[in-house]
Every structure is written in C-alpha cells, then in structure tokens.
UniProtKB/TrEMBL annotation:
Residues 2-128 form the Rhodopsin domain. Signal peptide: none annotated. It comes from the Eukaryota. This is Integral membrane protein, putative. It is a multi-pass membrane protein. The keyword Nucleotide-binding does not apply. The chain crosses the membrane at residues 6-25, 37-57, 119-140. Its main location: membrane. Belongs to the SAT4 family. One of its GO terms (cellular component) is membrane. Keywords: Membrane, Transmembrane, Transmembrane helix. It holds the Pfam family Fung_rhodopsin. It is found in: Membrane.
Amino acid sequence: VYYIDEPLYLASTALTKISILYFYLRIFPNESFRRATATLIACCIAYFIVFATVSVFQCRPISAAWKHWDGEHSGECNNVNAQGWACAVANIILDISIIMLPLPQLAKLKMSVGKKARLFAIFSVGLLYESLPTFEFLLIS
C-alpha cells in the first residue's frame, strides 16, 4: 500500500501547493513577485519528481517493495525512515515559503489597518498550522 500511496500523496501535495501559487499569480501582478512564485512552482515540481522517483525506485528490484517481507524473495530497499524525514523537511520548507511569499505584497495593499490586521491573522493561522508538524518533527527527532 505504501508503495502506491506515497507517489499519490506526493502528487496531491505538490498539486495543492502549485494551485495556491497559481492563485497568487492571479492576485498579485508585481513582476518580481511573479518570478518568485514561478521559482516556487518549479521547486514544487522538483519536489514531486525527486521524491516520487526515490519512492518508486526505493527497492532493487522494484518488486522487493512488496515481496521482500515474505522471506522467499531477496532485494535491497532504501531507508524508508530517512526518505520520509527528507520528504517532511522539504514539505515544511515549501509550506512556510508559500505562506510567507505574499506577506510583503499584503503589507502594500491600500486598505485600513483593521482589514490588514485581519488579513495577516488569516495567514498567521496558516503559520500556526504549519508550526505544529514542525514542532512534532523536532520532538520526534
């Protein structure tokens, strides 16, 4: 199950991040912001390609991913824990980058201080949401 689930999970997280970044592109016309957003989109695509490839080819031969548990088949597999930790770190870095990216643009918006405060509060909830897995990650390691 893990062998099939991991690439699907990676695709769903990468596509969710990319959809948020495309939403940012629709909202903010600033050229430097658009370049930074395009860079993050490229990082999300690279995140998916690298970790999906590592996940699919984690065992040699590939069939060892689902057959080596029975004791009749031989094969070698990567350290799945290290692979999971690396993926988690990359995911956290991408999430924080995506949450932080529009903050300077939001500060430049021409709106009342109260509306800006509410807008920043919404993004703060995103940072709080991301800080929980980061804190858990630090506790476990």
